[in-house]
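User: I'm writing a short methods note and want a consistent example. For Ribosomal RNA small subunit methyltransferase D, I'll paste the sequence; you return only the structure tokens, no commentary, since I'll be parsing the reply automatically.
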Amino acid sequence: MADRPGLRPTADRVRETLFNWLQAVVPGARCLDLFAGSGALGLEALSRGAGAVTFVDSDRQAMDRLCAVLDSLDARDRADCRCERAERFLSHGSGPFDVVFLDPPFAGDALARASASLTPLCHSDSLVYVETDQRDPAALLPDSWTCHRNGRSGGVQFGLYRPFVAPG
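Assistant:
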């Protein structure tokens, strides 16, 4: 599915590192794959026992392909496909999510805008995966988020972050 303009699936090596970090968290987890594209991260979460994954992307063709893949894997009972803009989903989405995959297109300010609106869909133990080009992800995230783990591969920086969620 990488033939769609702007679609940039997470590299295998990065995905392997990420899911090694998440191995104790993913089984049974409720996950959000925002800017899903090919759905590689959410599909990997499902294959590793996630309880449910919500896939969100505004590209109708990419979502149709992803839904077809989910059907072929007989995984639609644990997947929710939403063809809509991330901003719209974040304004009405129902959380909380245990794990969020936040990997928007590198160009533009989608990461900063999405991360600023994501906290209400998280809980105090939520982990948010962030992938960027060579820019430091922390510089684009809310100041209240803390880095749990991070890495670099080629021209990509990635990390797991905990958004601050006020008690209550």
